[in-house]
Amino acid sequence: MSYGFPVASERTPKRRMSAEARRAQIIESARRVFARQGYAASRTREIAAEAGINEAMLYRHFPSKEELFEASVLESIDAAMVRAMDNAKSISRSLAGSAAQIDDGIRKFFRDLVDLAVDLGPLIGATAFGPDSPVRAKLIDRLDALFAVATSITEDGIPDLMKEDVDVRLGLEKIFGALWFAAEMARWTGRPYDREAVIDQMMLTIQEGLITLPEEETPAPA
After folding, report:
1. Within a 13 Å sphere around the CA of 145, how many CA atoms are in the beta-carbon half?
2. Half-sphere exposure of 36 toward its Cβ, with a 13 Å CA cutoff?
3. Is 150 within 8 Å of 172 (Cβ atoms)?
4. Residue-wise over 14-52: b if at least 16 C-beta within 10 A, else e?
5. What would be the CATH architecture of the domain defined by 66-206?
6. Cα Rg for the chain, rounded, in angstroms?
């Protein structure tokens, strides 16, 4: 008598997770642990527990903690860099001269920055500002390369739109800082994060600024 429960032969066998899905699960678990504890304090056994697997399974996919960090953080920055290069033709006046196309190209790049800020912001903070570790220099190098590519794209693509006194590299770093902080504030306060609304405000700030200074009155002739 089975008392309404399926006998062993009737039970649906558990589906095995594919290697690709397991790898993605480990990466997401690693991101959560790295974000909470920083790279140096995180242990592979903690990452494995977060993923619901044992360490042996984790090591089948990632032979070391450093390789896991490479896959979970640095590869995402590399992917953003590739997307920035792919989007370059959308920003360039010589290839796509309309204002709408330039606006669209800039928005695409900002979306990549927003995604980095939302997905990797806590990790970047925990790693870059935490104790020195083997991956800190790699993280800084990746971010430096990302902004070098973005600066080159901006300067080469829309040189006639840039004001002479603008430091493009510093401007892009400030933009990322603002996007990152907006994402963190939403996370800290539990508010929803509307990516497109944030980008709209950033575009407004870049194109029109926040304030209009009053015009100085010209003194009447004596």
Report:
1. 15
2. 11
3. yes
4. eeeeeeeebeebbbebbbbbbbeebbbebebebbbebbe
5. Orthogonal Bundle (1.10)
6. 24
Vertex 51, ends 50 and 52: CA angle to 5°? Answer: 90
| pLDDT tens by residue, 185-195 | 998 899 998 99
CA distance 184 to 118: 8
Report how far apart, in Å, the C-alpha atoms of 22 and of each of 27, 109, 188 are: 9, 30, 29
**What pLDDT is attached to residue 40?**
83
Residue 76 has a CB neighbour count (10 Å cut-off) of 18
- Distance (Å, rounded) from C-alpha 84 to C-alpha 5? 55
**Which structure tokens are listed for 95?**
């290839």
**pTM metric for this prediction:** 0.70
Q: Please tell me what DSSP assigns to residue 4.
A: T
**How far is 164 from 162, CA to CA, in rounded Å?**
6
Give dist(CA 80, CA 115) in Å, integer: 9
> What CA–CA distance (Å, rounded) separates 30 from 19?
16
Which is it for the CA torsion 125, 150, 162, 168, positive or negative?
A: positive
Return the pLDDT at 197: 93
* Domain spans, the chain: 66-206
The CA-based dihedral angle spanning residues 60, 63, 66, 72, taken in that order and rounded to the nearest 10 degrees: -20
CA nearest neighbour of 26 among 75, 3, 76, 60: 60
d(CA 124, CA 121) in angstroms, rounded, equals: 5
